[in-house]
Protein backbone atom coordinates (compact mmCIF):
# COMPACT_ATOMS: atom_id res chain seq x y z
CA UNK A 1 0.00 0.00 0.00
CA UNK A 2 2.75 2.41 -0.88
CA UNK A 3 3.22 4.84 -3.76
CA UNK A 4 0.65 6.89 -5.61
CA UNK A 5 -2.05 4.20 -5.65
CA UNK A 6 -1.74 3.76 -1.90
CA UNK A 7 -1.95 7.49 -1.28
CA UNK A 8 -5.08 7.68 -3.41
CA UNK A 9 -6.76 4.93 -1.38
CA UNK A 10 -5.77 6.55 1.90
CA UNK A 11 -7.15 9.90 0.77
CA UNK A 12 -10.42 8.27 -0.26
CA UNK A 13 -10.63 6.45 3.08
CA UNK A 14 -9.99 9.74 4.89
CA UNK A 15 -12.84 11.38 3.01
CA UNK A 16 -15.16 8.46 3.77
CA UNK A 17 -14.34 8.65 7.49
CA UNK A 18 -14.93 12.41 7.53
CA UNK A 19 -18.31 12.01 5.81
CA UNK A 20 -19.29 9.18 8.17
CA UNK A 21 -18.42 11.22 11.27
CA UNK A 22 -20.26 14.20 9.83
CA UNK A 23 -23.36 12.10 9.06
CA UNK A 24 -23.28 10.51 12.50
CA UNK A 25 -22.94 13.89 14.25
CA UNK A 26 -25.88 15.24 12.26
CA UNK A 27 -28.08 12.22 13.07
CA UNK A 28 -27.23 12.44 16.77
CA UNK A 29 -28.44 16.04 16.69
CA UNK A 30 -24.99 17.48 17.38
CA UNK A 31 -25.13 19.74 14.31
CA UNK A 32 -27.79 22.28 13.53
CA UNK A 33 -29.25 21.19 10.15
CA UNK A 34 -29.88 24.81 9.31
CA UNK A 35 -26.13 25.50 9.17
CA UNK A 36 -24.57 22.10 8.61
CA UNK A 37 -26.93 19.63 6.99
CA UNK A 38 -25.94 15.95 6.90
CA UNK A 39 -24.08 14.65 3.83
CA UNK A 40 -27.15 12.55 3.04
CA UNK A 41 -29.30 15.69 2.97
CA UNK A 42 -26.81 17.35 0.62
CA UNK A 43 -26.84 14.26 -1.56
CA UNK A 44 -30.62 14.30 -1.60
CA UNK A 45 -30.67 17.96 -2.61
CA UNK A 46 -28.27 17.12 -5.42
CA UNK A 47 -30.44 14.23 -6.61
CA UNK A 48 -33.54 16.41 -6.48
CA UNK A 49 -31.87 19.06 -8.61
CA UNK A 50 -31.35 16.52 -11.36
CA UNK A 51 -34.49 14.40 -10.82
CA UNK A 52 -36.78 17.40 -11.08
CA UNK A 53 -34.91 18.64 -14.11
CA UNK A 54 -34.64 22.09 -12.56
CA UNK A 55 -30.85 22.09 -12.82
CA UNK A 56 -30.55 21.91 -16.60
CA UNK A 57 -31.36 25.49 -17.57
CA UNK A 58 -29.06 26.73 -14.81
CA UNK A 59 -26.23 24.45 -15.83
CA UNK A 60 -26.72 25.49 -19.43
CA UNK A 61 -26.57 29.17 -18.49
CA UNK A 62 -23.40 28.82 -16.42
CA UNK A 63 -21.64 26.64 -18.98
CA UNK A 64 -22.61 28.97 -21.82
CA UNK A 65 -21.23 31.96 -19.91
CA UNK A 66 -18.06 30.19 -18.78
CA UNK A 67 -17.22 28.50 -22.08
CA UNK A 68 -18.21 31.56 -24.12
CA UNK A 69 -16.04 33.78 -21.93
CA UNK A 70 -13.23 31.23 -22.09
CA UNK A 71 -13.29 31.02 -25.89
CA UNK A 72 -13.48 34.78 -26.29
CA UNK A 73 -10.80 35.33 -23.65
CA UNK A 74 -8.47 32.83 -25.32
CA UNK A 75 -8.99 34.34 -28.75
CA UNK A 76 -8.69 37.99 -27.80
CA UNK A 77 -6.02 37.44 -25.13
CA UNK A 78 -3.90 35.56 -27.67
CA UNK A 79 -4.46 38.15 -30.40
CA UNK A 80 -3.51 41.03 -28.10
CA UNK A 81 -0.53 39.11 -26.72
CA UNK A 82 0.80 38.42 -30.21
CA UNK A 83 0.19 42.01 -31.28
CA UNK A 84 1.96 43.39 -28.21
CA UNK A 85 4.92 41.06 -28.68
CA UNK A 86 5.32 41.98 -32.35
CA UNK A 87 4.39 45.68 -32.42
CA UNK A 88 6.19 47.85 -29.82
CA UNK A 89 3.57 50.62 -29.84
CA UNK A 90 0.80 48.12 -29.04
CA UNK A 91 2.85 46.84 -26.09
CA UNK A 92 3.44 50.39 -24.92
CA UNK A 93 -0.29 51.14 -24.88
CA UNK A 94 -1.56 47.79 -23.65
CA UNK A 95 0.94 46.88 -20.97
CA UNK A 96 -0.12 49.48 -18.35
CA UNK A 97 -3.80 48.65 -18.87
CA UNK A 98 -3.14 44.95 -18.51
CA UNK A 99 -0.93 45.43 -15.47
CA UNK A 100 -3.69 47.47 -13.85
CA UNK A 101 -6.32 44.89 -14.74
CA UNK A 102 -4.02 42.18 -13.43
CA UNK A 103 -3.42 43.99 -10.17
CA UNK A 104 -7.07 44.48 -9.20
CA UNK A 105 -9.36 41.53 -8.48
CA UNK A 106 -11.16 41.68 -11.81
CA UNK A 107 -14.43 40.38 -10.35
CA UNK A 108 -15.01 43.93 -9.02
CA UNK A 109 -16.04 44.71 -12.58
CA UNK A 110 -18.99 42.31 -12.37
CA UNK A 111 -21.55 44.91 -11.13
CA UNK A 112 -20.37 47.30 -13.83
CA UNK A 113 -20.91 44.68 -16.52
CA UNK A 114 -24.45 44.17 -15.23
CA UNK A 115 -25.15 47.89 -15.69
CA UNK A 116 -23.60 47.87 -19.16
CA UNK A 117 -24.86 44.55 -20.45
CA UNK A 118 -27.93 43.72 -18.40
CA UNK A 119 -28.64 40.68 -16.25
CA UNK A 120 -28.57 38.25 -19.17
CA UNK A 121 -25.82 35.99 -20.47
CA UNK A 122 -23.65 38.81 -21.81
CA UNK A 123 -22.66 40.28 -18.44
CA UNK A 124 -21.58 36.86 -17.09
CA UNK A 125 -19.65 36.09 -20.20
CA UNK A 126 -17.94 39.45 -19.85
CA UNK A 127 -16.75 38.65 -16.32
CA UNK A 128 -15.41 35.26 -17.43
CA UNK A 129 -13.86 36.91 -20.47
CA UNK A 130 -12.01 39.64 -18.58
CA UNK A 131 -10.63 37.11 -16.09
CA UNK A 132 -9.34 34.84 -18.85
CA UNK A 133 -8.21 37.45 -21.38
CA UNK A 134 -5.78 39.21 -19.03
CA UNK A 135 -4.22 35.91 -17.96
CA UNK A 136 -3.86 34.75 -21.56
CA UNK A 137 -2.50 38.11 -22.70
CA UNK A 138 0.40 37.85 -20.27
CA UNK A 139 0.93 34.18 -21.04
CA UNK A 140 1.29 34.82 -24.77
CA UNK A 141 3.08 38.16 -24.51
CA UNK A 142 5.81 36.94 -22.16
CA UNK A 143 5.83 33.55 -23.89
CA UNK A 144 6.76 35.08 -27.23
CA UNK A 145 9.34 37.41 -25.72
CA UNK A 146 10.97 34.55 -23.84
CA UNK A 147 11.26 32.23 -26.82
CA UNK A 148 14.69 30.61 -26.75
CA UNK A 149 17.04 32.78 -28.85
CA UNK A 150 19.21 29.76 -29.62
CA UNK A 151 16.29 28.01 -31.31
CA UNK A 152 15.66 31.08 -33.44
CA UNK A 153 19.33 31.24 -34.47
CA UNK A 154 19.32 27.53 -35.20
CA UNK A 155 16.33 27.77 -37.53
CA UNK A 156 17.80 30.86 -39.22
CA UNK A 157 21.15 29.16 -39.80
CA UNK A 158 19.32 26.16 -41.26
CA UNK A 159 17.89 28.55 -43.82
CA UNK A 160 14.54 29.38 -42.22
CA UNK A 161 12.77 32.68 -42.75
CA UNK A 162 9.88 34.40 -40.99
CA UNK A 163 7.37 31.70 -41.85
CA UNK A 164 9.59 28.87 -40.65
CA UNK A 165 10.28 30.73 -37.41
CA UNK A 166 6.56 31.21 -36.78
CA UNK A 167 5.70 27.64 -37.59
CA UNK A 168 8.65 25.84 -36.01
CA UNK A 169 9.52 28.06 -33.03
CA UNK A 170 6.93 30.66 -32.04
CA UNK A 171 3.74 28.68 -32.54
CA UNK A 172 4.85 25.57 -30.61
CA UNK A 173 6.30 27.57 -27.73
CA UNK A 174 3.23 29.77 -27.41
CA UNK A 175 1.02 26.71 -27.62
CA UNK A 176 3.00 25.15 -24.79
CA UNK A 177 2.58 28.23 -22.63
CA UNK A 178 -1.13 28.40 -23.45
CA UNK A 179 -1.77 24.77 -22.62
CA UNK A 180 0.21 25.13 -19.41
CA UNK A 181 -2.19 27.88 -18.34
CA UNK A 182 -5.38 26.37 -19.72
CA UNK A 183 -6.38 24.82 -16.40
CA UNK A 184 -6.08 28.14 -14.62
CA UNK A 185 -8.05 29.77 -17.42
CA UNK A 186 -10.87 27.20 -17.11
CA UNK A 187 -11.04 27.82 -13.37
CA UNK A 188 -11.12 31.57 -14.00
CA UNK A 189 -13.90 31.21 -16.58
CA UNK A 190 -16.16 29.36 -14.15
CA UNK A 191 -15.32 31.76 -11.35
CA UNK A 192 -16.27 34.66 -13.61
CA UNK A 193 -19.53 33.08 -14.73
CA UNK A 194 -20.65 32.14 -11.21
CA UNK A 195 -19.65 35.49 -9.70
CA UNK A 196 -21.48 37.27 -12.50
CA UNK A 197 -24.62 35.29 -11.79
CA UNK A 198 -24.18 35.94 -8.13
CA UNK A 199 -24.36 39.68 -8.70
CA UNK A 200 -27.55 39.70 -10.74
CA UNK A 201 -29.16 36.96 -12.78
CA UNK A 202 -32.31 34.99 -13.35
CA UNK A 203 -30.53 31.72 -14.16
CA UNK A 204 -27.30 29.85 -13.56
CA UNK A 205 -25.50 28.08 -10.72
CA UNK A 206 -24.50 31.43 -9.23
CA UNK A 207 -28.13 32.49 -9.26
CA UNK A 208 -29.15 29.22 -7.54
CA UNK A 209 -26.45 29.81 -4.95
CA UNK A 210 -27.72 33.27 -4.16
CA UNK A 211 -31.29 31.89 -4.11
CA UNK A 212 -30.20 29.16 -1.65
CA UNK A 213 -28.56 31.82 0.47
CA UNK A 214 -31.63 34.04 0.62
CA UNK A 215 -33.83 31.09 1.58
CA UNK A 216 -31.30 29.79 4.11
CA UNK A 217 -31.10 26.47 2.27
CA UNK A 218 -27.66 25.23 3.32
CA UNK A 219 -28.22 21.75 1.83
CA UNK A 220 -28.92 23.22 -1.60
CA UNK A 221 -25.96 25.54 -1.27
CA UNK A 222 -23.53 22.74 -0.42
CA UNK A 223 -25.01 20.56 -3.15
CA UNK A 224 -24.27 23.33 -5.64
CA UNK A 225 -20.73 23.70 -4.36
CA UNK A 226 -20.20 19.96 -4.81
CA UNK A 227 -21.70 20.15 -8.27
CA UNK A 228 -19.47 23.03 -9.36
CA UNK A 229 -16.41 21.25 -7.97
CA UNK A 230 -17.35 18.12 -9.86
CA UNK A 231 -17.70 19.93 -13.17
CA UNK A 232 -14.48 21.87 -12.76
CA UNK A 233 -12.62 18.65 -11.89
CA UNK A 234 -14.08 17.00 -14.98
CA UNK A 235 -12.90 19.88 -17.17
CA UNK A 236 -9.49 19.79 -15.48
CA UNK A 237 -9.22 16.11 -16.39
CA UNK A 238 -10.12 16.91 -20.00
CA UNK A 239 -7.62 19.76 -20.32
CA UNK A 240 -5.03 17.60 -18.55
CA UNK A 241 -5.52 14.89 -21.17
CA UNK A 242 -5.25 17.48 -23.94
CA UNK A 243 -2.08 18.85 -22.36
CA UNK A 244 -0.50 15.41 -22.07
CA UNK A 245 -1.34 14.63 -25.65
CA UNK A 246 -0.11 17.88 -27.19
CA UNK A 247 2.89 18.38 -24.90
CA UNK A 248 4.20 14.82 -25.07
CA UNK A 249 7.63 16.19 -25.97
CA UNK A 250 7.86 17.73 -22.54
CA UNK A 251 7.20 14.47 -20.74
CA UNK B 1 38.07 27.89 -49.31
CA UNK B 2 37.51 30.44 -46.58
CA UNK B 3 39.81 33.40 -45.97
CA UNK B 4 39.45 35.80 -43.09
CA UNK B 5 41.64 38.85 -43.68
CA UNK B 6 42.63 41.32 -40.96
CA UNK B 7 39.17 41.17 -39.43
CA UNK B 8 38.15 43.52 -36.63
CA UNK B 9 34.90 43.22 -34.68
CA UNK B 10 33.28 45.01 -31.80
CA UNK B 11 30.18 44.68 -29.65
CA UNK B 12 28.88 48.21 -29.68
CA UNK B 13 31.76 50.32 -28.42
CA UNK B 14 33.64 47.34 -26.98
CA UNK B 15 36.37 46.06 -29.30
CA UNK B 16 36.50 42.27 -29.36
CA UNK B 17 38.73 41.24 -32.25
CA UNK B 18 41.39 43.55 -33.60
CA UNK B 19 43.23 41.60 -36.22
CA UNK B 20 42.24 38.09 -37.16
CA UNK B 21 43.53 36.46 -40.32
CA UNK B 22 43.20 32.79 -41.14
CA UNK B 23 42.64 30.46 -44.05
CA UNK B 24 40.61 27.27 -44.26
CA UNK B 25 41.60 25.41 -47.46
CA UNK B 26 39.19 22.97 -49.13
CA UNK B 27 38.76 19.67 -47.31
CA UNK B 28 40.97 20.70 -44.41
CA UNK B 29 40.25 20.92 -40.71
CA UNK B 30 41.40 24.16 -39.11
CA UNK B 31 41.13 25.02 -35.44
CA UNK B 32 41.13 28.33 -33.67
CA UNK B 33 42.22 28.12 -30.05
CA UNK B 34 42.53 30.87 -27.50
CA UNK B 35 41.55 32.00 -24.03
CA UNK B 36 37.86 32.23 -23.11
CA UNK B 37 36.35 35.55 -24.07
CA UNK B 38 38.90 36.18 -26.81
CA UNK B 39 36.17 36.49 -29.43
CA UNK B 40 36.37 33.06 -31.03
CA UNK B 41 32.59 32.63 -31.20
CA UNK B 42 32.16 36.18 -32.44
CA UNK B 43 34.42 35.38 -35.37
CA UNK B 44 32.22 32.42 -36.36
CA UNK B 45 29.10 34.55 -36.05
CA UNK B 46 30.69 37.09 -38.37
CA UNK B 47 31.45 34.41 -40.96
CA UNK B 48 27.77 33.41 -41.20
CA UNK B 49 26.65 37.01 -41.12
CA UNK B 50 25.06 37.12 -37.66
CA UNK B 51 27.54 39.87 -36.80
CA UNK B 52 28.94 42.66 -38.97
CA UNK B 53 32.73 43.22 -38.92
CA UNK B 54 34.02 46.75 -38.34
CA UNK B 55 37.04 46.22 -40.57
CA UNK B 56 38.64 43.53 -42.72
CA UNK B 57 37.23 41.00 -45.15
CA UNK B 58 35.71 37.56 -45.20
CA UNK B 59 36.27 35.83 -48.54
CA UNK B 60 34.78 32.50 -49.35
CA UNK B 61 34.26 30.30 -52.35
CA UNK B 62 31.22 28.69 -50.72
CA UNK B 63 27.63 29.74 -51.19
CA UNK B 64 25.74 30.65 -48.04
CA UNK B 65 23.80 27.39 -48.06
CA UNK B 66 27.05 25.43 -48.32
CA UNK B 67 28.14 26.69 -44.90
CA UNK B 68 26.86 24.78 -41.89
CA UNK B 69 27.26 25.77 -38.27
CA UNK B 70 27.17 23.81 -35.05
CA UNK B 71 26.91 25.75 -31.81
CA UNK B 72 27.98 24.65 -28.36
CA UNK B 73 24.41 23.80 -27.32
CA UNK B 74 22.44 21.51 -29.58
CA UNK B 75 19.45 23.87 -29.87
CA UNK B 76 17.21 21.06 -31.11
CA UNK B 77 13.53 21.93 -31.25
CA UNK B 78 12.19 20.20 -28.13
CA UNK B 79 8.74 19.69 -29.67
CA UNK B 80 10.03 17.90 -32.75
CA UNK B 81 11.25 14.31 -32.85
CA UNK B 82 14.91 13.63 -33.68
CA UNK B 83 14.17 12.77 -37.32
CA UNK B 84 11.94 15.83 -37.73
CA UNK B 85 14.71 18.01 -36.34
CA UNK B 86 17.11 16.63 -38.92
CA UNK B 87 14.49 16.92 -41.67
CA UNK B 88 13.82 20.56 -40.86
CA UNK B 89 16.83 21.92 -42.73
CA UNK B 90 16.07 19.64 -45.67
CA UNK B 91 12.49 20.86 -45.83
CA UNK B 92 13.67 24.46 -45.68
CA UNK B 93 15.97 23.61 -48.58
CA UNK B 94 12.88 22.63 -50.56
CA UNK B 95 12.74 18.89 -50.04
CA UNK B 96 9.26 17.39 -49.88
CA UNK B 97 8.36 16.27 -46.31
CA UNK B 98 8.43 12.53 -46.84
CA UNK B 99 11.67 12.66 -48.77
CA UNK B 100 13.19 14.89 -46.09
CA UNK B 101 12.27 12.36 -43.39
CA UNK B 102 13.76 9.46 -45.36
CA UNK B 103 17.02 11.36 -45.79
CA UNK B 104 16.95 12.38 -42.13
CA UNK B 105 16.65 8.76 -41.02
CA UNK B 106 19.58 7.82 -43.25
CA UNK B 107 21.72 10.54 -41.67
CA UNK B 108 20.74 9.44 -38.18
CA UNK B 109 21.82 5.96 -39.12
CA UNK B 110 25.18 7.22 -40.42
CA UNK B 111 25.71 8.87 -37.08
CA UNK B 112 24.92 5.69 -35.18
CA UNK B 113 21.38 6.59 -34.13
CA UNK B 114 19.32 4.08 -36.09
CA UNK B 115 15.97 3.48 -34.46
CA UNK B 116 16.05 6.67 -32.40
CA UNK B 117 14.45 8.95 -34.99
CA UNK B 118 11.06 8.95 -33.28
CA UNK B 119 12.44 10.07 -29.92
CA UNK B 120 12.03 13.60 -28.64
CA UNK B 121 15.27 15.44 -27.72
CA UNK B 122 14.62 15.08 -23.98
CA UNK B 123 14.52 11.30 -24.46
CA UNK B 124 18.09 11.29 -25.81
CA UNK B 125 21.42 11.45 -23.97
CA UNK B 126 23.76 14.43 -24.36
CA UNK B 127 25.93 12.55 -26.84
CA UNK B 128 22.92 11.41 -28.83
CA UNK B 129 21.53 14.94 -29.00
CA UNK B 130 24.91 16.13 -30.24
CA UNK B 131 24.78 13.49 -32.95
CA UNK B 132 21.30 14.63 -33.96
CA UNK B 133 22.56 18.21 -34.19
CA UNK B 134 25.46 16.98 -36.34
CA UNK B 135 23.10 15.02 -38.58
CA UNK B 136 20.95 18.14 -38.91
CA UNK B 137 23.92 20.12 -40.22
CA UNK B 138 25.57 17.37 -42.30
CA UNK B 139 22.27 16.46 -43.99
CA UNK B 140 22.45 19.82 -45.76
CA UNK B 141 25.71 18.66 -47.36
CA UNK B 142 27.79 21.64 -46.26
CA UNK B 143 31.19 22.16 -47.85
CA UNK B 144 32.32 24.24 -44.90
CA UNK B 145 31.40 23.37 -41.33
CA UNK B 146 31.84 25.95 -38.59
CA UNK B 147 31.87 24.56 -35.07
CA UNK B 148 31.77 26.51 -31.83
CA UNK B 149 32.97 24.38 -28.90
CA UNK B 150 30.67 21.64 -30.18
CA UNK B 151 31.69 18.97 -27.68
CA UNK B 152 32.23 21.09 -24.57
CA UNK B 153 29.23 19.75 -22.71
CA UNK B 154 30.07 16.08 -23.26
CA UNK B 155 32.05 13.82 -20.94
CA UNK B 156 35.45 12.56 -22.13
CA UNK B 157 34.49 9.18 -23.58
CA UNK B 158 31.37 10.41 -25.38
CA UNK B 159 33.38 13.37 -26.59
CA UNK B 160 36.09 11.16 -28.09
CA UNK B 161 33.55 8.91 -29.80
CA UNK B 162 31.43 11.71 -31.24
CA UNK B 163 34.46 13.64 -32.48
CA UNK B 164 35.90 10.47 -34.04
CA UNK B 165 32.66 9.84 -35.93
CA UNK B 166 32.56 13.45 -37.02
CA UNK B 167 36.17 13.30 -38.23
CA UNK B 168 35.42 10.14 -40.23
CA UNK B 169 32.45 11.80 -41.98
CA UNK B 170 34.36 15.01 -42.62
CA UNK B 171 37.26 13.06 -44.13
CA UNK B 172 34.89 10.92 -46.23
CA UNK B 173 32.91 13.86 -47.56
CA UNK B 174 35.86 16.24 -47.96
CA UNK B 175 34.22 18.92 -45.84
CA UNK B 176 36.29 21.92 -44.71
CA UNK B 177 36.03 22.60 -41.02
CA UNK B 178 36.73 25.63 -38.87
CA UNK B 179 36.65 24.48 -35.26
CA UNK B 180 36.67 26.89 -32.37
CA UNK B 181 37.74 25.31 -29.10
CA UNK B 182 39.77 25.93 -25.99
CA UNK B 183 40.78 22.29 -25.82
CA UNK B 184 44.31 22.20 -27.31
CA UNK B 185 44.55 18.43 -27.50
CA UNK B 186 41.25 18.19 -29.33
CA UNK B 187 42.34 20.92 -31.73
CA UNK B 188 45.63 19.14 -32.53
CA UNK B 189 44.08 15.69 -32.84
CA UNK B 190 41.45 16.83 -35.33
CA UNK B 191 43.16 19.56 -37.35
CA UNK B 192 45.59 20.19 -40.17
CA UNK B 193 46.25 23.73 -39.00
CA UNK B 194 45.81 25.36 -35.59
CA UNK B 195 45.58 29.13 -35.17
CA UNK B 196 46.17 30.79 -31.82
CA UNK B 197 44.09 33.79 -30.83
CA UNK B 198 45.51 36.17 -28.22
CA UNK B 199 43.72 37.29 -25.09
CA UNK B 200 40.93 39.82 -25.64
CA UNK B 201 39.84 42.54 -25.77
CA UNK B 202 41.50 43.47 -29.07
CA UNK B 203 42.41 39.85 -29.69
CA UNK B 204 44.72 39.01 -32.60
CA UNK B 205 45.70 35.82 -34.35
CA UNK B 206 49.24 35.39 -33.09
CA UNK B 207 50.26 31.91 -34.11
CA UNK B 208 49.79 29.36 -36.87
CA UNK B 209 50.85 25.72 -36.44
CA UNK B 210 50.83 23.00 -39.06
CA UNK B 211 49.79 19.56 -37.86
CA UNK B 212 51.41 16.94 -40.04
CA UNK B 213 49.91 13.69 -38.75
CA UNK B 214 48.53 11.49 -41.59
CA UNK B 215 44.86 10.98 -42.46
CA UNK B 216 42.51 9.23 -41.99
CA UNK B 217 43.16 9.87 -38.36
CA UNK B 218 42.15 8.23 -35.13
CA UNK B 219 41.55 10.92 -32.51
CA UNK B 220 42.90 8.79 -29.68
CA UNK B 221 45.87 7.31 -31.57
CA UNK B 222 46.80 10.81 -32.79
CA UNK B 223 47.53 11.75 -29.20
CA UNK B 224 50.34 9.18 -29.07
CA UNK B 225 51.84 10.15 -32.44
CA UNK B 226 55.51 11.19 -32.02
CA UNK B 227 54.87 14.70 -33.36
CA UNK B 228 51.90 15.30 -31.04
CA UNK B 229 53.61 16.00 -27.72
CA UNK B 230 56.25 18.48 -28.99
CA UNK B 231 53.63 20.47 -30.91
CA UNK B 232 51.25 20.46 -27.95
CA UNK B 233 54.10 21.71 -25.77
CA UNK B 234 54.84 24.52 -28.16
CA UNK B 235 51.21 25.70 -28.53
CA UNK B 236 50.76 25.35 -24.78
CA UNK B 237 53.74 27.60 -24.06
CA UNK B 238 52.55 30.23 -26.53
CA UNK B 239 49.00 30.09 -25.18
CA UNK B 240 50.26 30.34 -21.59
CA UNK B 241 52.16 33.47 -22.52
CA UNK B 242 48.92 34.93 -23.91
CA UNK B 243 46.91 34.09 -20.82
CA UNK B 244 49.61 35.19 -18.36
CA UNK B 245 48.67 38.42 -16.69
CA UNK B 246 45.00 37.82 -17.29
CA UNK B 247 44.08 36.28 -13.97
CA UNK B 248 47.43 35.83 -12.17
Verbal overview:
- The complex is a heterodimer of chains A (251) and B (248).
- Chain A is mainly alpha-helical.
- Chain A has helices spanning 3-27, 39-51, 55-86, 88-103, 110-117, 121-145, 149-157, 162-199, 205-214, 218-246.
- Chain A has two domains: 1-31; 35-250, MetI-like fold (Orthogonal Bundle).
- A nine-stranded mixed β-sheet of chain B has the order 4-1-2-9-8-3-7-6-5, with helices on both faces.
- The longest helix of chain B is centred in the middle third of the chain and has 18 residues, at 156-173.
- In chain B, helix 2 packs across helix 3, helix 2 runs parallel beside helix 4 (126-138) and helix 4 (126-138) packs parallel to helix 5 (156-173).
- Chains A and B meet through helix 7 and helix 8 of A and helix 2 of B.
Name of the CATH first level of the largest domain in chain A: Mainly Alpha
What can be said about the biggest beta sheet of chain B?
Answer: 9 strands, mixed
Strand count of chain A: 0
**Structural class category of chain B:** alpha/beta
Number of domains of chain B: 2
- Computed CA radius of gyration of chain B, to the nearest angstrom: 18 Å
Shape verdict of chain B: globular
Largest interface: A-B, 20 and 23 residues
Helix and strand sequence of chain A: HHHHHHHHHH
Q: Please name the CATH topology of the largest domain in chain B.
A: Rossmann fold
Give the CA-CA distance, first to last residue of chain A: 26 Å
* CATH H-tier superfamily of the largest domain in chain B: P-loop containing nucleotide triphosphate hydrolases
Largest sheet of chain A: none
Amino acid sequence: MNGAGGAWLRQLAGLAVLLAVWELAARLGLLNPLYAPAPSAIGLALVQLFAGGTIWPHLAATFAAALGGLALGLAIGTALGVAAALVPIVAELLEPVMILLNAVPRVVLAPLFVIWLGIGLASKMAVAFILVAVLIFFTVYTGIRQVDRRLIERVVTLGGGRRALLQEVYLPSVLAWLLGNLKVAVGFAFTGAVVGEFVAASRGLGYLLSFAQSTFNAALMLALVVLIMGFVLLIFALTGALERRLLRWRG
Amino acid sequence: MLRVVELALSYGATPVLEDASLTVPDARVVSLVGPSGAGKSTLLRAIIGLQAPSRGRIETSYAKREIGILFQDDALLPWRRAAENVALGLKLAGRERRQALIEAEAWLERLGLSGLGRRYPRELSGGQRKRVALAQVLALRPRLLLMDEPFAALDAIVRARVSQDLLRLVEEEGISVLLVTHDLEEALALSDTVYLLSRGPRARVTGEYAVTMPRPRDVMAARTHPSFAPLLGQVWRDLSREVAGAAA
